[in-house]
Structure formats: structure tokens, C-alpha cells
């Protein structure tokens, strides 16, 4: 395998045999040893899966529940072996497939650290050397000698995540939906940890249903559907293809026709108006509900003329609940923010999603606008600098 490649998956098939006759007892097997036990169905979990992940790449795997993602992860982690094809990992891989697997509720936090570390393949001395860092990261020093069954669920997650992250000195990290558990502080630690991994150019395989996180962190993405690779490559395009899996034929036709706009249209941005001054940018987003929608998340994104993301936010990030939208309700959402953009052209992308990142309406390049300033910087932001040089 090429030294620049961290993980290689080539023409992988994985089948499972599903017997359909129930054996009632061991006695029946011995009493009728030559009896035909009935037909077994072959489940084709994965079919002809191929992709390569480069060293230092943050690589995403997405797909609906039951698409074959979990089987693929277990193949990469070495838990399963492929029926056909090959999976090669260049270096040491640590899987975060499920936080806390192997924890024993009857053991103390301290004992569980050593138990879990051993299950991950680390020696007793390696775990001892990092024990204090694990406890410090988890912020559970006072509780390490208590039994795990007396921990809250949040404390257990913090301990499991701490063990995994502190011990994970590996070449490849496999992370499966860790953002789906834990409180806001824990999720913030996850995000900070991901930023650290990306900065350090770690090879990461990231599996998530959160398209926001996929868009933010992943360099490339593969979409698995019905056991096959549906599409792969550019993060934005694959994330869009993922959301379109949840549309019916009529909605998909609308999304395809509009090209850069997609969603199930239960609630839509009808228009956007934008005004700029030297100091302030104001966006007026008119939204109409076509069905009853509860607390949709309303967002905006600004991109440069080259397509690079410059800034953006949404109502959830800003701590605002949008409330209940009845059929036919039309509301005006006004965004204001300081005009820190440099001289140049920009695109505005409004969006409306739900808490699970299901897209109601995503509109790329809904509006194009220009920012005129007296000077031009080679950067997207120009907040207005001051400088003093002491004599």
C-alpha cells in the first residue's frame, strides 16, 4: 500500500447468513443430527465498497440507519473480516465506536480506567503514565474511587471519552457519533478535540448524521446507501446528496430542478433582501410555513466569490427558539452584524433545518452582494485595525 495512504478499502463485500428455522434445544440437534435445518437467507450488507483515505485527512462516512455504515466501521476496525475484498490500515487504529464499552458498573472509576485501557490494547504501565491526565480531562478526581454504578450518565460519558482521547496516541482514529451523547459542555469538548485533531493533521474517520459537523470538519466524504457507495468526494456535494435521500420523488424533482436549492419545503425562505453600509450589514429573510413546523432552526451563511465559507450562524447557536409555525404563517427574520468583510463579492446562503439536521430549505447563492471599501486585503475579513508603535 502507498505510504501516503492511511486506509485502503478495495472491492469489499460483506455477507451474513440468516437462518430461518429455530432450533428449540441442544437435545433436538443430537436426536436428529442429519435433519435439514431449513434454508438460510444471505444478507448482502456491503457490496463492492472501495475508497482510500490519505494520511492526515479528516474523512467522513455518512448514510441512513441500516445503510451498512456500522458493518463498514467494524471491518475497518478489524472486528469483522470481509467476505470478499480487502481492508488495509497503515499504522495503529483506535476505534471510538461506542464510548464506555467494557465498563463494569461494579468497579470503581479508577478500576474501569485500567480495564478499558487494557481492552483498547494499552499496557498497565502506559495507562499508569496517563492516569492523571485522564482524570484531569474528565474532571472526576473526587469520584474515581466510587463505583461506576453511582455515576450519573453524564459522568460515565466524560470518563469514557477521557479514556479514549487521552490514550488515543494512534495513527488513525475511528469516531462514531460521539456527538450524539453528553451535555453541552461535553459536546464542546468533542468539538475542541476535533479541532485539535484537525490542526495536528491526524487521520480521522468520522461517522455522523450531523451534516453541520460533517461540513465543518471533513475534507472528503463517502455516502453509503443500501450497502453500496452512492457518491463520494466533495463535502458539500455529498452532504447535499445525503439530505436528498430523505426527500420523496416530488420533493427530489423540485430539488433537482432548482439545482442549488433543496429540502422538503415544509417551510421555505420566500425572499432575502440585503443592505450594507460601511459599518453594518442587514439581512431580511422572509419565511413561510407550508405545514405545521415546530421550532425550525433558521440560519445564514456568507461565502466568498470563490465559494469559501466566510461566516455564518443560526438561531440555535444564537440561543433563539423560532417557535411554532402554523400553515400559511409568514414571518420576517432580520439579521444584523458588523460589516467586517473585505472589499469584494459575496454569496448569501439562507437555510432552515430541524434539530436532526433534516433540511426543510437550503438555498445556495440566494443572493450575491458586493462590499466596497477603500482598501483591499488578501483576507476575507477587515474589522478595521489600529496600530501603535512605541518609541
Q: Gyration radius, to the nearest Å?
A: 25 Å
Order of helices and strands: EHEEHEEHHHEHEHEEHHEEEEEEEEEEE
End-to-end C-alpha gap: 59 Å
Structural category is: alpha+beta
Give me the CATH fold name of the domain at 259-371: Coagulation Factor XIII, Chain A, domain 1
Unreliable segments of 5+ consecutive residues: 253-259
Strand content: 25-35%
CATH architecture of the domain at 259-371: Distorted Sandwich
What is the overall shape? Answer: globular
What is the level 1 CATH name of the domain at 259-371? Answer: Mainly Beta
Q: Kindly state the mean pLDDT as a whole number?
A: 84
Strand order of the largest sheet: 5-6-7-3-8-9
What's the helical proportion of residues?
25-40%
Outline the biggest β-sheet: 6 strands, mixed
Amino acid at each position: 500500500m502507498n505510504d501516503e495512504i492511511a486506509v485502503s478499502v478495495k472491492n469489499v463485500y460483506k455477507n451474513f447468513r440468516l437462518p430461518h428455522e429455530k432450533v428449540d434445544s441442544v437435545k433436538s440437534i443430537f436426536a436428529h443430527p442429519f435433519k435439514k435445518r431449513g434454508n438460510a437467507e444471505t444478507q448482502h450488507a456491503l457490496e463492492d465498497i472501495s475508497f482510500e483515505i490519505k494520511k492526515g485527512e479528516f474523512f467522513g462516512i455518512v448514510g441512513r440507519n441500516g445503510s451498512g455504515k456500522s458493518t463498514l466501521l467494524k471491518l475497518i476496525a478489524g472486528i469483522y473480516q470481509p467476505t470478499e475484498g480487502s481492508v488495509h490500515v497503515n499504522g495503529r487504529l483506535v476505534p471510538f465506536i461506542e464510548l464506555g464499552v467494557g465498563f463494569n458498573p461494579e468497579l470503581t472509576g479508577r478500576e474501569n480506567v485500567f480495564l478499558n485501557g487494557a481492552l483498547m490494547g494499552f499496557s498497565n504501565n502506559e495507562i499508569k503514565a496517563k492516569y492523571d491526565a485522564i482524570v484531569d480531562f474528565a474532571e472526576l478526581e473526587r469520584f474515581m474511587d466510587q463505583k461506576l454504578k453511582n455515576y450519573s450518565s453524564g459522568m460515565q460519558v466524560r470518563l469514557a471519552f477521557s479514556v479514549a482521547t487521552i490514550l488515543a496516541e494512534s495513527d488513525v482514529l475511528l469516531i462514531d457519533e460521539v456527538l450524539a451523547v453528553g451535555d453541552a459542555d461535553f459536546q464542546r469538548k468533542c468539538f475542541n478535540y476535533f479541532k485539535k485533531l484537525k490542526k495536528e493533521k491526524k487521520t480521522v474517520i468520522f461517522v455522523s448524521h450531523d451534516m453541520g459537523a460533517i461540513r465543518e470538519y471533513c475534507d472528503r466524504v463517502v455516502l453509503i446507501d443500501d450497502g453500496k457507495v452512492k457518491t463520494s468526494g466533495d463535502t458539500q456535494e455529498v452532504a447535499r446528496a445525503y439530505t436528498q435521500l430523505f426527500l420523496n420523488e416530488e420533493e427530489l424533482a423540485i430539488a433537482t430542478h432548482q439545482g442549488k436549492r433543496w429540502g422538503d419545503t415544509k417551510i421555505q425562505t420566500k425572499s432575502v433582501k440585503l443592505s450594507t453600509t460601511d459599518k453594518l450589514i442587514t439581512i431580511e429573510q422572509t419565511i413561510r410555513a407550508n405545514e405545521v413546523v415546530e421550532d425550525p432552526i433558521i440560519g445564514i451563511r456568507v461565502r466568498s466569490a470563490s465559494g469559501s465559507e466566510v461566516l455564518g450562524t443560526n438561531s440555535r447557536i444564537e440561543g433563539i427558539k423560532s417557535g411554532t409555525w402554523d400553515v400559511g404563517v409568514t414571518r420576517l427574520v432580520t439579521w444584523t452584524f458588523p460589516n467586517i468583510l473585505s472589499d469584494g463579492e459575496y454569496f448569501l446562503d439562507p437555510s432552515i433545518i430541524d434539530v436532526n439536521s433534516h433540511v426543510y430549505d437550503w438555498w445556495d447563492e440566494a443572493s450575491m452582494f458586493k462590499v466596497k471599501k477603500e482598501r483591499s486585503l488578501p483576507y476575507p475579513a477587515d474589522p478595521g485595525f489600529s496600530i501603535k508603535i512605541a518609541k
